[in-house]
Amino acid sequence: DVDKAVKAARKAFELGSPWRTMDASERGRLLNKLADLVERDRLILATMEAIDGGKLFSTAYLMDLGACIKTLRYCAGWADKIHGRTVPMDGNFFTFTRHEPIGVCGQIIPWNFPLVMFIWKIAPALCCGNTVVVKPAEQTPLTALYMGSLIKE
């Protein structure tokens, strides 16, 4: 399964792929849309967190989901602001920095904060144009699976 997931993520990251050629502002728009979907399904996700990991529903609903939505919106706002700059130099030199995505990011999610850590790991990676392979904890896989369906949506 891991090999299949990494192969798919590498294919999605290839030069000329829709993800690789996507404008940064479009990545930001997609992250904002994901935040909207998380907000829409907040009740479902909080219930899953409570059932899956034994967390208090109120904590999951108010704190965890609130943090997830804020993190997605924060990263969405940064998507089109990560760029290089020109550095002044003496003489006949032209110096610049260029930020590029690095490729496939492997993300291992712990059992104790499955949804929060999922968002904290995928949002910055996707914001920067990387692709992601997520490995949720065996003890708390439900929210990661549900987030996969929201990302597809």
TrEMBL record:
SUPFAM superfamilies: ALDH-like. Its EC number is 1.2.1.3. Residues 1-153 form the Aldehyde dehydrogenase domain. Signal peptide: none annotated. It holds the Pfam family Aldedh. GO terms for molecular function: aldehyde dehydrogenase (NAD+) activity. InterPro entries: Ald_DH/histidinol_DH, Ald_DH_N, Aldehyde_DH_dom. Belongs to the aldehyde dehydrogenase family. This is aldehyde dehydrogenase (NAD(+)). It comes from Arenaria interpres (Ruddy turnstone).
